[in-house]
User: Which sequence fits this backbone?
């Protein structure tokens, strides 16, 4: 057991899941599951709602040859605990920081997609010195509108009444393009399994956390680390216009639009996504050496 100030972390080896070896850490009173593979510049991947770290399997496989890849089941998701209590994005940011402390990682390149991007904004507010660079994928800086908050509340009620399968029915058309839904049944089943693997407490907790999140637009001009923005051209949940807003306001940020991809651009067009991440990470790594 290793103490990190008020945060306590315990680690043990786990089992293989979806071709990703599992490790477990006892952090802030709950068990978090994660994977840690490869060596070199650390890349920390923060997944979307309502999925888990296995959404990054293709990124881990391709990028762990060059970099240290860390993927996390955020609290409420996958193999991590889903306590029945109030969730906040700051709380998730604290979980990530505690895990980095245990792994003796002072700085990393962070990749956050959708909700992962919201958590990355929260993390940057609290721990900017730990962020060597960031990749914001299919996410937005704006807070929810009142209509958006109401939609999350209604989805939480649906989760409570009908369970995770009903959430999968709602979310899959928002996450994947129509062409993918029609022509890639295996990918659709993969996404559905990730959603249905979550507990109701985690789904509802995250919905409320996202509804209550801060507006990050004022933060954008204050971001000083290298930043890459990625968005699928068909993303309707967080459309390219949201990414352009971030690219315009974050100093020296880069924007890449991936063709034929919707909200889960890393799953629909993994090769293009991986190329963008690898190029950005390689450049960041060279800056460290120079």
Assistant:
């Amino acid at each position: 057991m290793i103490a990190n100030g008020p945060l306590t972390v315990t680690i043990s080896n786990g089992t293989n899941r979806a071709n990703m070896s599992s490790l477990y850490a006892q952090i802030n009173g709950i068990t978090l599951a994660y994977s840690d593979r490869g060596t070199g510049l650390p890349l920390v991947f923060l997944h979307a709602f309502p999925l888990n770290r296995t959404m990054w399997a293709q990124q881990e496989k391709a990028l762990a040859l060059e970099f240290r890849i860390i993927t996390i089941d955020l609290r409420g998701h996958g193999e991590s605990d889903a306590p029945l209590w109030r969730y906040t994005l700051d709380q998730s940011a604290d979980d990530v920081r505690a895990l980095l402390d245990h792994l003796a990682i002072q700085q990393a390149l962070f990749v956050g997609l959708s909700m992962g991007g919201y958590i990355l904004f929260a993390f940057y507010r609290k721990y900017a010195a730990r962020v060597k660079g960031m990749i914001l994928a299919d996410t937005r800086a704006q807070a929810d509108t009142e209509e958006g908050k109401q939609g999350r509340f209604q989805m939480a009620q649906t989760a409570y009444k009908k369970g995770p399968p009903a959430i999968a029915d709602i979310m899959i058309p928002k996450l994947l393009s129509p062409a993918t839904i029609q022509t890639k049944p295996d990918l659709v089943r993969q996404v559905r399994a990730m959603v249905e693997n979550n507990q109701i407490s985690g789904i509802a907790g995250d919905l409320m956390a996202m509804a209550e999140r801060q507006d990050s637009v004022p933060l954008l001009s204050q971001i000083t680390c290298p930043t890459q923005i990625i968005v699928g051209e068909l993303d309707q949940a967080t459309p390219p216009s949201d990414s352009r807003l971030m690219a315009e306001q974050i100093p020296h940020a880069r924007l890449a639009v991936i063709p034929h991809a919707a909200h889960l651009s890393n799953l629909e067009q993994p090769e293009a996504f991986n190329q963008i991440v690898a190029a950005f990470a390689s450049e960041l790594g060279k800056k460290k050496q120079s």
